[in-house]
Design brief:
Helix content: 40-55%
Structural class: alpha/beta
Strand content: 5-15%
Order of helices and strands: EHEHHHHHEEEHEHEHHEHEHEEEHHHHH
Largest sheet: 7 strands, parallel
Number of strands: 12
Strand order of the largest sheet: 3-2-1-7-8-9-10
Number of helices: 17
Length: about 400
């Protein structure tokens, strides 16, 4: 990936900040576009008491792209344990102080970008004070991100639609330019209804995604979320996203192929979560082993380096052939069981991408079985193998 390659990453929560850490190794031109609907925890308190936008997700993205010493990140992630500041995060207080100084959250975030020497920039998707409103299948509605998440988890309420209050908030002045000028736009990973969709409801964002010349890539979640996306497959996630977008906006999907066993997975299953199943037939999909277990919290996260390499290869090929590195091949082989499955996994990825650049094939009709008939010499020239290796 060219260091000047322009990436626009849209999302929120821990998913967005996680992948930014991998992407910044490949590009100096990253724009993180972050949702600002959180109303819980430290962010919620500051939002109510300081009359400011929630700083938590912004803080995490700033630190992910910052060029600072590790101790500086530890300091900004420090959470007070006692006294009147108990539960407050120092990084959030830093953004609150800047907001108070400049009397504008947008200016505060710009200043924080400079102070932390961010590689790229972090933008709130809107500077308006917004709230999430969930419309449930049972006909009820609920306002507030935290309240919605709790209702989904505790009462297993099923979301029919998400909206913003007020509707169609004004987009941040630099967000549309970032999307339109990008070479690659990444959607996700992150909570479907509370981190991804809210960004698409801000005035002009969905239209810009359709209008941009960039490749729009959806990064699928590794796990479902209790209540919120319980039982959702990959196509279910995509169906929800595309219901808020113009048809055929998404060019490619990246999803996880690795699995985690043992107590960690058992805890997820007991909570009502499960691995997101890839059942996509109408999208171009690259599968790769991206499930990584965090040492401290024992949460399953995306492997930022694996994802970054996939995007790196996709950018380098101009949206064409993707050829995985030996590292990813080894991981594929380890999870698949042997080198033959590894080769098939890589071939499937390349077939999907080749099908996309072959304009004679309608996007919605691409499938590996159709594309493989058009491969011809690709097997020998690209993978240096013959068809018999796939039998």
């Amino acid at each position: 990936m060219n260091k000047n390659m322009k990436l626009a990453c849209i999302g929120g929560g821990t998913g967005l900040s996680t992948i930014l850490r991998g992407l910044k190794k490949h590009s100096d031109n990253i724009t993180a576009i972050v949702t600002v609907s959180d109303n819980g925890g430290s962010s919620g308190i500051l939002r109510r008491e300081m009359n400011m936008l929630p700083p938590g997700d912004i803080r995490n993205c700033l630190l992910a792209l910052a060029e600072t010493e590790p101790v500086f990140e530890d300091l900004f992630q420090y959470r007070f344990k006692e006294g009147s500041l108990r539960g407050q995060n120092l990084g959030n207080l830093f953004l609150a102080a800047l907001t108070d100084m400049y009397q504008n959250f947008g200016h505060a975030v710009e200043k924080a970008n400079d102070i932390l020497r961010v590689r790229g920039r972090v933008l709130p998707v809107t500077l308006e004070d917004i709230e999430l409103e969930a419309h449930f299948v049972d006909g009820t509605t609920l306002v507030g991100e935290t309240q919605i998440v709790e209702a989904c988890k505790e009462e297993r309420k099923e979301i029919k639609k998400i909206s913003l209050l007020p509707a169609n908030p004004k987009v941040h002045s630099h967000v549309i330019d970032a999307i339109e000028e990008a070479d690659i736009v990444l959607l996700g990973p992150g909570s479907l209804f509370t981190s991804i969709v809210p960004n698409l409801l801000v005035d002009g964002v969905a239209e810009a995604l359709k209008r941009t010349k960039a490749k729009v890539v959806y990064v699928g979640n590794i796990m479902t979320q209790p209540g919120e996306t319980e039982g959702f497959s990959l196509s279910d996630h995509l169906g929800v996203i595309e219901s808020y977008l113009e048809p055929n906006t998404i060019d490619m999907v990246v999803c996880n192929s690795a699995h985690v066993n043992g107590d960690i997975l058992k805890n997820y299953l007991q909570d009502g979560a499960a691995f997101v199943r890839n059942d996509c037939e109408s999208y171009l999909v690259i599968e790769a082993p991206m499930a990584l277990v965090e040492d401290k919290e024992k949460h399953i996260r995306h492997d930022a380096d694996v994802l970054a390499e996939i995007i790196n290869q996709y950018c380098s090929a101009g949206g064409g052939q993707v050829s995985f590195s030996s590292t990813i091949k080894e991981e594929l082989a380890r999870h698949a069981g042997d080198a033959r499955h590894c080769l098939i996994a890589e071939l499937t990825a390349i077939i999907n991408i080749c099908g996309r650049v072959d304009q004679k094939i309608p996007k919605r009709e691409i499938s590996p079985s159709k594309s493989i008939r058009k491969m011809g010499l690709w097997l020998e020239n690209t993978l240096h193998c013959s068809k018999k290796h796939l039998i």
